[in-house]
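Researcher: Good morning. I'm working through a list of sequences from a screen, and I'd like to move beyond sequence-only analysis. For each chain I'm collecting a predicted structure so we can compare shapes side by side. This is the next one on the list. No need for commentary yet; just the structure.
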Amino acid sequence: MIEALKQKLGDEVEKLQFELNVTLPGEIRRAVEMGDLRENSEYKAALERQQFVRARLSQLRERLSKLSSIDIAQIPHDSIGLGTTVHVSDEKTGLRETYHLVFGDAIEFEDGHVTMSSPIGRALLGKKLGEVALLKLPTMVRRLKVMELRTIHEAKPAEIVDIVEIEKIEER
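Model: Good morning. Structure tokens for this chain:
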């Protein structure tokens, strides 16, 4: 499950490592051969891309390290944790919402994805079916009753990859 995500991240690391060690040095070399580096936009673009790739590699390695520390056996089977899809009902308005707890930091989310460190993620974490989570907002406190939950243990392997969203590398 998590292994599929590790593989996907590892593949991206390999691709970026190749770009950093093979492709970009060639581009920089060609740009240097063109002459004056102060006015050479190809040289500047290659250096900027090199910085971006290094930063992205660092980010991916950190994420892989965090993924390696996750022990699926430690994630609860009957309460909200990493990978849980939870349906809640606001006790005041009756509005039903669905959230999917993901692991992440500065990442892109799909609708309904929340990190475990976000205010709503912290409020829901550890709650069981029928329990009420108190979400403290600046102007009020929302009471969200857990109506239904599906943990990571009940998810299909293809759904596990969505637990940690992967940022898309921007095209140059």
